[in-house]
């Protein structure tokens, strides 16, 4: 996708022609995209520029103020370039978007030959049909790789949230692989979170053009806001699965302790009863 369009050329030409007003361009970008941080930044540049020219020529601060005022122009030019995704849109061919995805031949988890779900358990339509942990680690690696390859497209906090969620889920998968719970509902929730929910959130966000991630949708929310909320929900789900899995492990340990105490309670200080008479 290229930014070399007639509309973008016209915008850049106008910006160059009216270069003394570049601080105003930053403000307009923020207002147009409803980004309060950029709007505030542009307002500060304009205030500095106006304030610099408002200083009397006989003032001791006239030269300093003038340098500050003139300095806002190149700074605004640099910021306008860094914010180019918000005002210089890419030319999109059809519905394809520039999203880097891992090569499926190397990272996409293989599909098993048959399902290992219990016969009495029927997950909702479209639910994963693999066993409780078969291929989940590979699916998690695929998701983490997708996030890393598109690190520059993701907000910093969201990128960190994805990796932390992957780490939490990986710990659950590791424990479940070594000692399965045998709980169909838990297996379904874990599999769906790893194979469907988390990858879908990433793919849906990365399919949006960079220039539209701060644009409010019909529901009044921006894609960035949606991404943050959905990742928070998935993070809580991962923590819930992690807690549930380790509560089960603790319960098993307690049950074994109860059994041993009951089994050997009457043998304290005496010979070990091996069932022989």
TrEMBL record:
The entry's keywords: Membrane, Transmembrane, Transmembrane helix
TM ranges: 12-31, 38-55, 61-83
Stretches with biased composition (Low complexity): 101-120
Chain residue ranges for the region called Disordered: 97-134
Official protein name in the record: Uncharacterized protein
Species for this entry: Arthrobacter jiangjiafuii
């Amino acid at each position: 996708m290229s930014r070399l369009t007639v509309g973008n050329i016209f915008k850049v030409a106008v910006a160059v022609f009216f270069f003394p007003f570049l601080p105003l361009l930053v403000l307009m970008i923020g207002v147009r995209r409803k980004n309060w941080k950029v709007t505030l930044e542009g307002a500060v540049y304009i205030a500095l520029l106006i304030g610099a020219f408002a200083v009397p020529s006989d003032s001791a601060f006239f030269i300093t103020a003038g340098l500050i005022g003139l300095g806002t122009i190149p700074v605004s030019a640099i910021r306008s370039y860094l914010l180019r995704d918000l005002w210089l849109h890419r030319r999109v061919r059809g519905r394809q978007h520039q999203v880097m995805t891992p090569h499926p031949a190397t990272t996409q988890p293989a599909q098993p030959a048959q399902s290992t779900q219990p016969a009495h358990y029927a997950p909702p339509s479209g639910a994963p049909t693999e066993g409780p942990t078969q291929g989940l680690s590979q699916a998690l690696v695929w998701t983490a790789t997708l996030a890393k390859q598109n690190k520059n497209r993701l907000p910093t906090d969201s990128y960190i949230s994805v990796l932390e969620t992957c780490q939490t889920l990986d710990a659950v998968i590791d424990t479940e692989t070594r000692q399965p719970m045998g709980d169909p509902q838990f297996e379904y929730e874990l599999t769906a979170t790893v194979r469907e929910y988390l990858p879908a959130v990433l793919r849906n966000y990365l399919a949006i053009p960079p220039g539209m991630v701060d644009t409010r949708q019909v529901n009044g929310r921006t894609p960035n806001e949606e991404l943050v909320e959905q990742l928070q929900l998935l993070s809580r789900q991962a923590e819930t699965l992690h807690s549930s899995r380790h509560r089960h492990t603790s319960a098993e340990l307690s049950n074994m302790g109860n059994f041993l105490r009951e089994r050997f309670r009457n043998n304290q200080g005496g010979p070990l009863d091996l069932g022989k008479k």
